[in-house]
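A student in our group prepared the protein record below, which I am reviewing. Thanks in advance; the entry in question is below.
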Amino acid sequence: MAKSRATPPKDYESALAELEAIVSEMESGQLPLEASLTAYKRGAELLQYCRHQLADAEQQVKILENGALLPFEAAQPIKAEDIDD
């Protein structure tokens, strides 16, 4: 995991899994300095990718909700009569 890959992850979940693996490897304290720097750089790239993906998802939700993004607690439950058959 210590070598940096220039390719972007295929999706959010794979980016998060790779980031978790990098953190675990770095926390072990077994990486040499150069490998740690490379892992840190890749981790920063993955973190930026994940943040971008989350921001995009939030923007899509705002659009779907006509700009009225409510906190989860404030959302009303779906009632049976609200569902079209």
Q: What stands out?
A: Residues 12-82 form a domain with the Helix Hairpins fold (CATH 1.10.287.1040). Helices lie at 12-27, 33-64.
